[in-house]
């Protein structure tokens, strides 16, 4: 069973969580949640195209869309590369020579990641709506 809208709705919630984390000063969580929003939006798009996507590598997920007849704009590819860096680094202290992720992440990191996640989500959503015909509001 294809569940594109479920994936898309969760992507919207993940992006909202990223914004709240940024507002709380939890910048590493903002970056991770923005990555998750983009990942789930991409998986929603795959589902809407009748395919299944696995993994967390956004660059690979974006490139894989070519095989389904969808070419991503350059900014989406670049945002995927930006967000990929935060899937593990934002969560685990051993990603840095010392300290924990919360010491290394900044408000600028959070803003950039949220912008990237939002752009990727909007791009995926626009293609899903085009394929399915109409505006699908998320809850």
How would you describe the overall organization of this protein?
The protein is mostly helical. Helix 1 runs antiparallel to helix 2 (27-48), helix 3 (58-64) packs antiparallel against helix 4 and helix 4 (74-84) packs across helix 7. The chain is elongated and about 45 Å long. It has helices at 4-24, 27-48, 58-64, 74-84, 86-89, 101-104, 107-132. 68% of the residues lie in helices and 0% in strands. It has one domain: Four Helix Bundle (Hemerythrin (Met), subunit A) (Up-down Bundle). The chain contains seven helices and no strands.
Q: How is this fold's topology laid out?
A:
Layout: H1 4-24, H2 27-48, H3 58-64, H4 74-84, H5 86-89, H6 101-104, H7 107-132
Helix pairs in contact: 1-2, 1-7, 2-7, 3-4, 4-7
Which class do the helix and strand fractions yield? mainly alpha
Helical percentage = 55-70%
Q: Which CATH architecture? A: Up-down Bundle
List low-confidence stretches: none
CATH superfamily: Nucleotidyltransferases  domain 2
Number of domains: 1
Shape: elongated
Can you count the helices? 7
- CA-CA gap between termini: 20 Å
Main beta-sheet strand count, sense and barrel state:
none
CATH class: Mainly Alpha
- Stated plainly, the CATH topology is called Four Helix Bundle (Hemerythrin (Met), subunit A)
Number of strands: 0
- Determine the mean pLDDT: 94
- N-to-C order of helices and strands: HHHHHHH
Gyration radius (Cα, Å) is: 15 Å
Q: What fraction of residues sit in β-strands? A: under 5%
């Amino acid at each position: 069973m294809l569940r594109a809208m479920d994936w898309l709705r969760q992507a919207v919630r993940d992006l909202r969580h990223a914004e709240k984390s940024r507002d709380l000063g939890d910048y590493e969580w903002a970056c991770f949640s923005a990555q998750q929003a983009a990942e789930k939006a991409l998986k929603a798009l795959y589902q809407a195209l009748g395919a299944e996507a696995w993994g967390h590598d956004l660059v690979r997920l974006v490139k894989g869309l070519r095989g389904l007849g969808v070419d991503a704009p350059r900014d989406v590819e670049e945002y995927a590369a930006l967000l990929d860096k935060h899937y593990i680094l934002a969560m685990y202290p051993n990603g840095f020579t010392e300290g924990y992720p919360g010491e290394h992440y900044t408000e600028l990191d959070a803003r950039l990641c949220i912008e990237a996640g939002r752009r990727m989500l909007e791009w995926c959503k626009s293609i899903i709506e085009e394929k399915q015909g109409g505006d699908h509001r998320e809850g």
